[in-house]
Amino acid sequence: MPRVLLLATTTGYQTRAFGEAAERLGVQLVFATDRCHMIDDPWQDGAIPVRFHDEDRSVSAVLDAARCRPIDGIITVGDRPTVIAARIAQRLGLPGHSPEAAEVARDKERMRNRLRDAGLPVPWFVPAPIYADPRAIAATIDFPCVVKPVALSASRGVMRADNAEQFSAAYQRLQALMRQPEIRAEQNDAHQRVLIEGFIPGRELALEGLLHRGGLTVLALFDKPDPLDGPFFEETIYVTPSSLDAHVQARVTEAVARASAAIGLYHGPIHAECRVNDRGIYVLEIAARPIGGLCTRALRFAKKGVGSLFSLEEFLLRHALGESPDGWEREPTASGVMMIPIPARGVYRGVSGVEEARAVAGVDDVAITAKPDQILVPLPEGASYLGFIFARGATGPSVERALRDAHARLRFTIDPELRVVQSAHGSM
User: Fold this and answer.
1) How far is CA 296 from CA 100, 136, 288, in A?
2) For residues 422 and 428, what is the distance between their CA atoms, to the nearest angstrom?
């Protein structure tokens, strides 16, 4: 039975989906996760405990385990393990992205430099220390601009500013975010830097792709129909196929291929974010891993000569084991996903209307991932969604309508968060 190493956080949405896909394909998954190494196999999955901030020790731990359980392929879920995965692939002689390319893809400042040096369109950008004085920086830059952390994903911490006052407020808000214990626990030196860049107007798209020995196969080009103009940049709806004309889609594909080559990405899944306007195609970023969360459920694939549809996880497992993407194509129907946004900070109590939402024509499923009594935190500080809605239909617009209609039927109960207030006489 072939073995595939899956590097992921213990809380990743995709881990179970890959497990189910592996079972269908007759593939054994070897997990490497950031679970507690002091407890003997708490999840009973035989996972190799790793620490994403300690790459040398994590690579050694996996290589030691691979002596008894040889690895035939590697898949990464999330941004943090990508460099470790690349180093392991290199040591085992397996195809994959190079460690240097994975490092660049994980650092927005380094990525901007690579794209600029390759002659690709980029906004003006300047790096700054996270604890710099924003008032001093504001006097040297143009507006509107975007301030962002260089090593967080999913638009977390990304904010637009249209003037010096807004910039200072956004910068201070980002400073507070980067002081949070969960981020400090990552022990990532990149969190000490901020990237400031010009705001790029235009239409935003996401490209899900697969690099096979340097050649790009587009798995899906997603429209993002909701405007993403700030002040925050929370993603909500993805719909594929894109409604852009074929010529523009070809230009997007070419830009992502050039950007991938500039970064040094070579073999494996990629997820790219782009903006399109009358000045050109701007590649905002490319991650050296597949689309995150439960969004993979929006994609299914068929192989020529085979009647069945396969999940993205099955497709990626096959590729990790050496299968070419040639002869594969996305299902012919339009599909989409809504990442249900958190409307306000508070304590999640529950939701009603789920069955009504599922009954909307075109809706495949509604998955609520928030847990009762969970503290909900919206962007730019938050890092999660209330859940996901999935739909399919004959056209992209019909899929978008189904997602919006289903979302309108959901009613979430979110109570205000009680905070402890310190007074001169103690807490209240």
Assistant:
1) 27, 43, 15
2) 6
pTM: 0.94
Residue 113 to residues 105, 146, 259, 260, 263, Cα–Cα distance (Å)? 11, 17, 11, 13, 9
Give me the chain's average pLDDT, please.
94
Asked if 313 and 14 count as a contact pair (C-beta separation under 8 A), the reply is yes
**What local confidence, expressed as pLDDT, does residue 40 receive?**
45
* 328 bridge partner residues: 303
In the chain, what is the straight-line distance between the N-terminal and C-terminal CA atoms, in Å?
Answer: 60
pLDDT, tens only, 141-164:
999 999 999 999 999 999 999 999
163-183 confidence digits (pLDDT tens)? 999 999 999 999 999 999 999
Strand partners, 280: 277
* Partners of 415 in the β-ladder: 347
- Contact (Cβ atoms closer than 8 angstroms) between residue 8 and residue 15: yes
Q: Are 146 and 230 in contact (CB under 8 A)?
A: yes
Quickly count: other Cβ atoms within 10 Å of residue 226's Cβ: 15
Of 111, 72, 112, which is closest to residue 95 (Cα–Cα)? 72
The answer to whether 299 touches 308, Cβ cutoff 8 Å, is: no
DSSP letters of 324-369? -STTEEE-SSEEEEEEE---SSEEEEEEE-HHHHHTSTTEEEEEE-
Pairing, β 426-427 against β 422-423? antiparallel
